[in-house]
From TrEMBL:
Species annotation: Protopolystoma xenopodis
InterPro entries, per the entry: Glutaredoxin, Glutaredoxin_subgr, Thioredoxin-like_sf
A GO MF label: glutathione disulfide oxidoreductase activity
Protein name per UniProt: Glutaredoxin domain-containing protein
Gene Ontology CC: one annotated term: cytoplasm
GO BP terms: cellular response to oxidative stress
Length: 44
């Protein structure tokens, strides 16, 4: 797993469809980015 996680040692290491996302903080950042990209489209 360390090879797939680019040497990161924290847990959890998150993978989506085999793509390494990173740790929990990285997942939260990704969620915020997706929300920011979708809100204008959805008029939220």
């Amino acid at each position: 797993m360390q090879a797939k996680a680019n040497g990161q040692h924290t847990v959890p290491q998150i993978f989506i469809n085999g793509k390494h996302i990173g740790g929990c903080d990285d997942l939260y950042k990704l969620e915020e980015q997706v929300d920011a990209d979708l809100k204008p489209v959805l008029n939220v």
